[in-house]
Amino acid sequence: RSSDLKHKNPNCSFSTASVYKTDLNDNFFDVILSSDVIEHVNSPDKMLTEAKRIAKQNAVIIFGTPIRYTEFPLDKMHVKEFFPEEFKHLYSEYFNKTEIILSHKLIHLLKYRKTLKIFNQKIGFNKYLYWLISMLNLNPFFKKPVSDNDLCTYMFATATE
Prior knowledge:
It is a single chain. The chain is an alpha+beta fold. Helices cover 29% and strands 27% of the residues. The strands form 2 sheets. The protein has a 4-stranded mixed sheet. β4 and β5 form a beta hairpin.
């Protein structure tokens, strides 16, 4: 709850706004991070325009989104999914030094989601295994793909303004 966080840090505040138009000043942020949002909006161009407006010069802007693999979004809540090159092209229309970083190899996602049936109960044993591996800083989701044949499920677009 925001009231709990405010109590711990009296210098922070929270607000909500449309991703298309905020009340923030121009050139406001040094860093903008958006994860799992752009695939849900009807006008990604408007969202990126607003991010550009509120980003300071030389700000770091990072947007994360699932990778598109089919003609229509796999997730029914997604308005639009992007192929990596398509997302890079869109992103580079707004920001400088655009780079796409692929993440979350498909094989690891499938293993992560795998459940075992024990005593008629489905148990996500692999989730605990991946959590343990992550605690050792060995999270396989964040290993860079070795080749173009490594199917990934997520991408980050990074840029500077």
